[in-house]
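Letters spell out the chain; backbone shape is given numerically. Both lines appear below:
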Amino acid sequence: MNKHGGYYGENQEKVLDFSVNINPLGITEKVKEKLIESINTINRYPEIDGESVKKVLADRLNVETSQVIIGNGAIELIYLFARAFCPNKVVIIQPTFNEYLRAFNLTGSIICNYELTYSNDFNLETNALLEYLKKAKPNLLILCNPNNPTGHFIRYKNLLPAISYIKEIGAYLLIDESFIDFTDEESYVNLFKEFPIFIIRSMTKFYAIPGLRLGYGIANSDIIKKLNKYKEPWTINSLALSIVTTVLDDEIFYKESKKWLQAEKSYLYKELKKIKDIDFFNSQTNFILCRVKKGNAYEMREKLMKYNIYIRVCDDFAGLDNTYFRVAIKSHKDNVKLINAIKEILQ
């Protein structure tokens, strides 16, 4: 198992964990205060389906509450869609988040991996994808956008031919926008009224609340209605529900996060370019996919552990081997430690 994300337990404070893609600015004092204020609600059942949060999100997204569903993180909604729709054939644009594969394997779907390649910097050629879809004729196409682990984003105008074909054959498109808040790109949310699209969002990454587990989905009312038939009640805890308005209203945190990401991504790009034995791929989000030219990423990880630094080896992603690793973009202090450690290891 390629352990990451909560692996360290009691030692987690001693380790700089670059394997987890969470905003390093952390939760704000406003969020902490709201959590303390809401602590007495835990002796009561939370809303059965997060209706108040649906209304908040619907107002901000300019959609109806019947077009929104709340999940225990984005991950619940991925598995929920698989159970509710049980598509016979699924095309997954790879390399990408592994839980799509697991979720649809559990429902018995035939999985077709459409693999992007190193030779093209893992960029998607939309005409080639359309031709592939015409041959495969799937019931569902899955796209992580921005993609994990490459960090690439595909604008919907470039994907429209494929989306139109998906609609033509009566299939669905699942778009995972869990990392979109880290970008300045336009969401696919304006397309769901015209096309059979289920858009998934996470509040875990950008707002640094992975322990609270909160995500949501947007789709037409028919898709949401079917999902609700299969959804378990009370999957969102009262503390998670209590902070939604607080985190969404914090414009200062939002602006500071964007300012941090721009500065630190530029720093890491500049320094990684100086390391001749490392390839990296431009990312539109808060992590960077890298590749060692000599040896493998497991060796790199073991050596970095001596500096109390942990990275994500990526050989369990389809189309990637053990020369690939991913690093989150963290605070400047931590990023400097990472770069200095890699330079010392490879000198």
